[in-house]
Design a protein that fits this description.
The complex is a heterodimer of chains A (242) and B (267). With 242 residues, chain A is α+β, with helices and mostly antiparallel strands. Chain A is 27% helix and 31% strand. Chain B has a single domain, classed as 2-Layer Sandwich (Ribosomal Protein S5, domain 2), CATH 3.30.230.70. Classes of the chains: A alpha+beta (242), B alpha+beta (267).
Chain lengths: 242, 267
């Protein structure tokens, strides 16, 4: 099937992958998938397949990075060479370094680092297969992996993107929509505290569209939160206990 | 850990002043530092600018040369913005490969100019899929006094506005420079980046280095001439509420209009 700009959406608002405007892709999260990591999660978010592993709190190397007043959080977002259509060079690209930074800053407000001075919590994210919105999916898995590692947290972090496709605001842009669409806005939310910890945008939005787009993404974040919560409950409350 | 104690003392002072609606340098919360733009400072570049935003100082040079297009973008010229913090600009800056802060800075500056579609890249094509004009906009921070995002963005925009594009003719499918003929770059809109910091419950425009050292979170919003919001980047180790972000988007548009007037004088 050949897709052109005009075919990103039908006139009655059905998107190129058959979803409605406010529909998320299929999301499934599995908790505790790695044996060596202190906490881990695997997420499938549309065609995204992403692993997150958490180690720590543990000793900081190199030592000079340690903070005597607080723990530190480090994050590495990495894409496997086979995760995209054209082979990706395995060395971290500038894009991956930037995403690592924004993911770290999106998780940091939720993690109570003060309790672990001079230590580090490492979050490693491996994108095995990438689709649109991999940074949000990665963040969702990382937050669950942190919780799985038993790291004290103020809240979970739930992320989802919204965007503008064929002049309409849509929830959770996929790869085709990201490439051909008019705007992409990834958002991360601490759902119980109402705090937005990641916000990026590229594209072009009128001020009122900016507002709608952000609100649409926040609705998505809250839905993702329920899926994250359920995944954690499945591991820790298998017998239906609370 | 002297610097941490100092930061705490500074933060206390800055917060105390904010509660009375004041800032440490006497500005109001939504007031930028004076912006001084000088263009044509590097005659060997096709365009250049030296920008001072308070104590922050940037030099940007624009180099224009024929190049091969990106494989999937054969109908567009090339635009690449970079930014670098020179070791002489800051006691904490180190020579060597860029760290994540510097990579973020460069990518956010690039995104602002790219996503607003400041330059009509379709007009920079010599032969479709074979040969295009590349514009390389390289910014160097030479004195770091806070809010490098906006300062680098303004310097890049000023550098682009000041540049003259050489002419190339195609001979035997290869570009040949035509001496003495230049044109203005194909400008479609004027991007203005506005960075705000949140300290406690207060949101301040154009933070200084001291204010940045004690900020909770940061947001950079780039708008175009039509008042659309085209690029956003949140940074810093804490977040914002949705109301705060909507307020920031309005502030960014209002402050952006003032800065854009300064750019218009360069055209």
């Amino acid at each position: 099937m050949v897709k052109t700009m005009t075919q990103l959406m039908t006139e009655d608002g059905i998107r190129c992958d058959g979803r409605r405007l406010d529909e998320l892709r299929n999301i499934s999260i599995k908790v505790g998938v790695l044996k060596n990591a202190d906490g881990s999660a695997y997420i499938e978010f549309g065609k995204n397949k992403i692993l997150a592993g958490v180690f720590g709190p543990r000793d900081v190397h190199p030592k000079h990075m340690a903070n005597p007043d607080s723990g530190i959080l480090r994050c590495r977002y990495h894409m496997s060479p086979f995760s995209v259509t054209e082979r990706k060079n395995p060395a971290p690209s500038r894009r991956e370094i930037e995403i690592s930074k924004v993911i770290k800053e999106a998780l940091q407000p939720a993690v109570i680092l003060k309790d672990y001075p001079r230590t580090v919590i490492d979050v490693f994210i491996e994108v095995l297969q990438a689709d649109g919105g991999s940074r949000c999916a990665a963040l969702d898995a990382a937050a669950v992996a942190l919780a799985d590692a038993g790291i004290p947290m103020r809240d979970l972090v739930s992320a989802c993107a919204a965007g503008k496709v064929a002049d309409r605001i849509v929830l959770d842009v996929n790869n085709e929509e990201d490439q051909e669409g008019q705007a992409d806005m990834p958002v991360a939310l601490m759902p119980n505290m109402g705090k937005i910890t990641l916000l990026q945008l590229d594209g072009m939005l009128k001020p009122e569209e900016f507002k709608t787009c952000m609100q649409t993404a926040l609705v998505g974040c809250k839905r993702v939160y329920e899926i994250q919560r359920k995944a954690l409950m499945e591991k820790y409350f298998q017998n239906g206990e609370q | 850990m002297n610097s941490q104690i100092l930061d705490q003392l500074k933060k206390d002072k800055i917060l105390e002043l904010l509660k009375t609606g004041k800032r440490i340098d006497g500005r109001s919360l939504d007031e930028q530092r004076p912006l001084v733009i000088e263009t044509g400072v590097i005659p060997k570049a096709n365009g250049s600018a030296r920008v001072k935003l308070g104590n922050t100082e940037i030099i940007t040079g624009v180099k224009i040369q024929p190049d091969k297009p990106f494989p999937d973008l054969g109908d567009k010229g090339i635009l690449i913005c970079t930014a670098e913090i020179l070791p002489l600009a800051d006691p904490n800056a180190e020579p060597g490969p860029p760290n994540e802060e510097v990579i973020e800075l460069a990518r956010v500056v690039d995104r602002g100019i790219r996503e607003t579609e400041m330059i009509d890249l379709h007009k920079l094509v010599l032969i479709e899929n074979k040969s295009v004009i590349g514009m390389f906009i390289d910014s160097s921070v030479i004195d770091s006094g806070g809010n490098l995002f906006d300062a680098c963005s303004y310097a890049s925009v000023a550098g682009i506005l000041s540049c003259t594009v050489p002419k190339w003719e195609i001979k035997d499918e290869a570009p040949v420079l035509v001496e003495g003929v230049t044109s203005k770059p194909p400008i479609k809109t004027l991007p203005v980046s506005v960075t705000m910091a949140r300290i406690g419950d207060y949101i301040i425009v154009d933070p200084t280095k001291d204010e940045e050292s004690c900020m909770d979170a940061r947001i950079t919003i780039t708008s175009n001439t039509d008042g659309n919001i085209c690029a956003v980047q949140k940074g810093g180790s804490d977040g914002f509420t949705a109301e705060q972000l909507l307020q920031c988007s309005e502030t960014a548009l209002a402050v952006g209009r003032k800065i854009r007037k300064q750019f218009e004088q360069l055209m």
